[in-house]
Design a protein that fits this description.
The structure is a homodimer. In chain A, strands 8-7-6-5-9-1-10-12-2-13 form a 10-stranded mixed beta sheet, with helices on both faces. The two termini of chain A are 42 Å apart. In chain A, helix 9 runs parallel beside helix 10. Chain A is an alpha/beta fold. The longest helix of chain A is centred in the N-terminal third of the chain and has 31 residues. Chain A folds into 2 domains: 446 residues, Alkaline Phosphatase, subunit A (3-Layer(aba) Sandwich), CATH 3.40.720.10; 55 residues, no CATH class. Chain A has 15 helices and 19 strands. Chains A and B meet through helix 3 of A and helix 3 and strand 2 of B. Chains A, B: Pfam families: Sulfatase (PF00884).
Chain lengths: 546, 546
């Protein structure tokens, strides 16, 4: 298997930017504004940081550390990582709690408000809209992450990392967007996501989560178009870099079920363990992604394992035990001391199912799809033995795009970050190595899709006024005093309106200079070697109106 | 000082029930219902518990442990005790966090929804309404905790404890209700509470918290009655058991100010340290109450110390440092190992000031005065070195009245619990000594004043229907899946309506058998030796219509 992968890896290298990039990284306006104030201190600090990183690499035989990045779907801040908060919800997450205890908690991690953009931000270090990415829909779209974007996997690969991806991907259904074409040596992933795989199925309808959308729910006597519902969509595929993808575990004509969804999740859990074993045995450092589909799931189990018992909550507790197994396996490989393990959620809960899913807004208001703190604040824990103090925490602002730049620096791969486009991701290595107060950002722009909806600066957050509405009417919240963003006071807006306006201008001027790139487009399902007849048909129907 | 106190103590003993009580403690119906199911197992367990308590007393020279009980005003669940949640609010509570780390967290402590009833429940082990107590108002009322109620201080005193109270009392302005007439050897306390002392003052109006209620805020050109505002109210007093109270730090004609309020708080902090020193030097075990007035306060400090800076939040952080000083002093006395330290809040935040106070609802919805979880769920931490494991937690339901019975048992004072009235407080010693799952209650009746508004059983909570509204319309919430009580589902009510109805019936039948006692009444301000002329006048005016 090793040989095949190496060949495939060579193919990818041949198509990726092969040379170190020259010049400075291009930054957004707000960063430059801070840099003008703190640039000298940062430069001094960077020398220390470089020294420390060199020591770390030296101690590891000249190699940067492995990175295992676990991204969980749709879980609100506070739902995992704290034994005491586990009592509030009746969901036990002992393994994630232990991970938090063993490392650093990023107490103010901002994501994008939904799955696709958060993942794009992590992969590219850029606001997703710069790559044309707003939100990838569940069904056929013929769209996805453009080949022109340079992912963290591509960056780390050029610095000598082996890479693999297991689980949810959600970056589109076109060939250029597939993970094995975006820097991963090997990948197992579903072409679409959980709506197709766990919501549009009979069991979710039976659990009262789809109001009869499944065809078993009504006679459909006066309906015409059966393909208004999911039809012939590709499910899970596997592939090596540069190769064709192959759909697994699905026969022509077969109906997707909850049992198949659960098997898929179990398969990904098996595969992440296999990939870990395989990568740990190599000489090169590894970058391994585990992006589970759970806790999303819309049917009740035969017997709940959590005290909560909600259909998301129960699967979160199951997933926690799987993460325990994964970390135990990492210990067995002997690589735990040289491996950064990071775990976080991609955005807030799917609050629309609150009450029955068992997850809830807990502390921050709002959830998935929303610019409110409940949509974009998630738990985030990093374990890095010998470097990050156990049970430590920092209150600094971090955005998910910062991980791109930070992991690139830790992976000795800064030279491979592109210099021809804006990189929003701020290097947070100083925060990791020198502690609280060392973040190089005190701001976040919060988008919902293509629309900027909020601007965060320090503890203040402005909800931007709708077009044509006077700025003085824009509510500004103090999120320390008012975490649920419910008590705007006009004085705050009157004072800070101008400051927020300046921030937006700095951002917009840089967009004018470096315009957004277009979303990748193409024929859906190219590069899949065993398309089922119904998938072929779905694709034909999809393109029939063009 | 010691001699005087002993004499005073004798006086109190002469008026309190002098003999051990005979027979079984009278329990509410729901407890009996559980006892019918688990009585045998409980009896067996009680033998073990008695053995263990005897060991603990033996190890302490035959004496039960000291009890230091700190009750903080109006703080929501999650606002203190967790370093990581401190990041959410920007309020640092390192000393309370350490206390939580050093002991047991009661993760499901229920209080009453406001100050007076919670304190009555703690002092008497009874639902406050059984003593006629609903809520004691801020101004003159001529009402209070009846002499006939037997307080925990009286119970522990008879078992040989020395007792003292420092800080908020809020059990009424009549002589029989004063703490030194309710079992405390010594007491320093304000006659009323923070509304008079920190809200109805010029500084709170200037801080925009009273909409000009203070007379400095408008000309009052067409007003008649100046005494509609606070007038001549007694402020802080001090007294020994059986003696007269004496108002301190207030001259005739003097206006109460924020500076005086802050001095009062600082004085109580000094006095709690003095009382601790005094009591620790005695041979007898002590029961010492510290009921701070902070964090309540309605003016901004000259310079905030917390990142949050809200007027409640900042004082909570200050109070935390004072508690650190108190615990350090306890260490210095050498009594820390023999002292149970308990800290909790009396009810949820004053949510009406949310946004500017800096406190917020955080996890549970609602606050002070409300039967919602946000009104009656508070943080509660117990440290008992050598007995309670550090950093432990239990998810069992506990009600504040349980502390009466539990401290009585730990204090070897069960014989002095009255046997002629219902005692709601459940003995939670098994929970403390044998851990999670050993609570003897899985229910709570939640009153707002005289009206039962909710019934809690396990993770379910029914909001009772208004009179005349059909039971099927009563919303039932699953508070693990829905901590904010926002997503009632009719199925829950249809199923559990009957079960909740049975619970209410069991409670009501016991009330019919043991009717509520009347609230204590009398002439306000009796027993104060230095009433100011304006206080005399206020009392005359108060009674002039009678």
């Amino acid at each position: 298997m090793k040989k095949t992968l190496s060949l495939a890896a060579l193919c990818v290298l041949a198509t990726a930017p092969a040379l170190a990039q020259e010049g400075e990284i291009i930054r957004d306006g707000e960063y430059r504004y801070l840099e003008a104030q703190f640039g000298e201190a940062w430069a001094e600090q960077d020398e220390r940081i470089d020294g420390r990183l060199n020591e770390i690499w030296e101690a590891n035989g000249g190699k940067p550390p492995n990175i295992l990045y676990i991204l969980i779907d749709d879980v609100s801040f506070g739902q995992m990582g704290s034994r005491k908060l586990n009592y509030v919800t009746g969901i036990d997450t002992p393994n994630i709690n232990q991970l938090a205890q063993d490392g650093l908690s990023l107490m103010r991690m901002y994501t994008e408000p939904s799955c696709t953009p958060t993942r794009t931000a992590f992969l590219t270090g850029r606001h997703p809209i710069r790559a044309g990415v707003e939100e990838v829909k569940v069904a056929l779209v013929g769209e996805g992450l453009p080949a022109e974007e340079v992912t963290l996997a591509e960056v780390l690969k050029q610095a000598g990392y082996n890479t693999a991806h297991v689980g949810k991907w959600h970056q589109g259904d076109i060939e250029q967007a597939y993970p094995h074409n975006q820097g991963f040596d090997w990948a197992a992933f579903p072409l679409h996501q959980q709506v197709q795989l766990s919501l549009m199925i009979r069991e979710a309808k039976d659990a009262n989560n789809m109001l009869g959308y499944h065809l078993s729910g009504q006679s459909n006597q006066f309906g015409l178009d059966e393909r208004f519902r999911p039809y012939g969509l590709v499910t899970g595929v596997e592939a090596e870099a540069g190769g064709m993808a192959r759909e697994v575990d699905m026969e022509p004509g077969e109906e997707w079920t909850q049992a198949k969804y659960e098997e898929m999740n179990e398969r990904y859990q098996r595969q992440i363990l296999e990939q870990l074993d395989r990568l740990a045995a190599e000489d090169e450092p590894f970058f391994l992604q585990y992006w589970p589909l759970y806790p999303l799931n819309f049917a009740y189990p035969e017997q709940a394992i959590s005290r909560n018992g909600g259909f998301h909550a129960d699967k979160l507790q199951l997933l926690d035990s799987w993460i325990g197994d994964l970390l135990a396996r990492l210990d067995e490989t002997g690589e735990a001391d040289n491996t950064i393990v990071m775990l976080m959620a991609d955005n807030g809960l799917m609050y629309h199912y609150e009450g029955t899913s068992g997850l809830n807004q807990l502390i921050y208001r709002g959830g998935k799809t929303q610019h409110l703190e409940g949509g974009v604040r998630t738990d985030a824990f990093i374990r890095w033995p010998g470097v990050l103090a156990p049970d430590s925490a920092v209150g600094d602002i971090v955005h998910v795009s910062d991980l791109f730049t930070t992991f690139a620096r830790i992976g000795n791969a800064m030279d491979y970050i592109p210099r021809d486009r804006i990189i929003d991701g701020v290097d947070q290595t100083p925060l990791l190595l020198e502690g609280e107060g060392n973040s190089r950002r005190d701001y976040v722009y919060v988008y919902e899709g293509a629309i900027m909806r909020s601007v965060v600066k320090q503890e203040f957050k402005m909800h931007l006024p709708a077009p044509g509405v006077p700025g003085a009417a824009a509510p500004v919240y103090n999120i320390l005093r008012d975490p649920r963003e419910e008590h705007a006071q006009i004085g705050n807006a009157l004072w800070s309106g101008a400051s927020f306006q300046d921030m937006v201008k700095r951002h917009q001027k840089m967009i004018a200079k470096y315009p957004h790139l277009p979303l990748g487009t193409g024929m859906p399902y190219e590069g899949i070697e065993n398309l089922r007849p119904e998938s072929e048909l779905a694709r034909e129907v999809f393109t029939s109106w063009q």
